[in-house]
């Protein structure tokens, strides 16, 4: 037994040594593997850290580029705003200089009038003195010649003097009245001429067709689609006519409804830019444009109010102004017409010493009734006045709008100026269009109205229907009757013909004597 134990002890010790060295070798191998793995993890972490650093740098550069672009855009906008303000200030300075010149002219005129009045008073005093001397002389002569009493002579003299004074007073009153009319007409023409000159514009009447440029001729085929399905879908959704002809790289959109035409134009431009044109995409784009259109209308109204310088308008007034961008009257854009009227009436109000801001406000919103005239019964001036009253406009604004087509008589100077400015904008050459048939019919109607009166020999409508000259038979119409005839023709024209501006009626009566010397 002891021998067996002694024999196993070296063996066990040997196994122990072998196990110890094996574990030590295995541990070193594990340590080496762990160190290698740790190195790989560390290298991977370094690579990830480097990538993260590069991405952070790239992101920082992009953010810096974006901030720089935003800053430059803001600086550009500020610069543009400053330039607009400088233009406004320069215009105001010019207006102030012009006003100073006008005040100096008026001051000189007042001084001249005061001087003339002083001279006239002196002349009147001298004439009164001479008249008293003549009266005394006449008294003495009458007493000596006729043997009348002083009281009787006084009555006779006073009667003669009273007749002479009445005659002179009538002549003087007529002279003063004629001079006042002449000065008033001259001043009115100066104010109107100045207003028209300062507010002159280049635009003419609008058409019913919008032209859309295309990037290539191949785009026309894509707009038409297979067997015309794209163009049919577009026309059905927008309610317009799409005209594709031989015009290079362009298509036309035709409609008498400006809102439909504008929606179709925006939708077509987006489809052409996108390039995906098929019925489903067309429906998507058209519906999106229709949804955005109220905001477009609001922006147009705000832009018009900003251009004219009219602030604190009610949001509903802003919306109605924007709708006027897509309304026309005899081919003239109603919003452009309203801006013209606002500028003209503002200048005339300044020249007359009235508040130009109130005048511009009246001119800008005077036609807002046309924005809903197809939805509400009544004339647009009455509708516009009711809307303005409901939205809190002042009485003078409401009354001027209500009377700008002479349905009611204007109660303030603003109403009179609005009628004049409205007529100036509407009657400006090129502002409104007429077809040749309507033009010829209107001239014929003018001449027929003149021929309907007795004693009219010939009638000619001239100046594109702005004037009618009537030649009467001299043996049937005398000089005193031609004034009444002109008034009767004018009244009949107002009742039977709708027109913008004014029509001048001129009556000509002449007598000719013809002899031949042989």
Give a nutshell description of this structure.
The protein has helices at residues 2-146, 150-198, 218-224, 229-238, 258-274, 279-308, 315-324, 334-351, 356-365, 380-390, 395-402, 413-427, 436-451, 481-496; strands at 209-213, 241-243, 250-254, 328-329, 332-333, 456-462, 467-472, 504-508. The chain is mainly α and 518 residues long.
The count of DSSP E runs of length 2 or more, i.e. the number of strands, is 8
Q: What CATH architecture of the largest domain would you give?
A: Orthogonal Bundle
Structural class: mainly alpha
What is the CATH topology classification name of the largest domain? Hypothetical protein af1432
Shape: elongated
Mean pLDDT: 78
- List segments where confidence is low: pLDDT < 50 over at least 5 consecutive residues: 202-206, 429-436
Assess the beta-strand content as a share of residues: 5-15%
Number of helices: 14
Radius of gyration: 45 Å
What's the order of the H and E elements?
HHEHHEEHHHEEHHHHHHEEHE
CATH class of the largest domain: Mainly Alpha
Binned, the helix content reads 55-70%
Instruction: Look at the structure and name the CATH superfamily of the largest domain.
Output: Hypothetical protein af1432
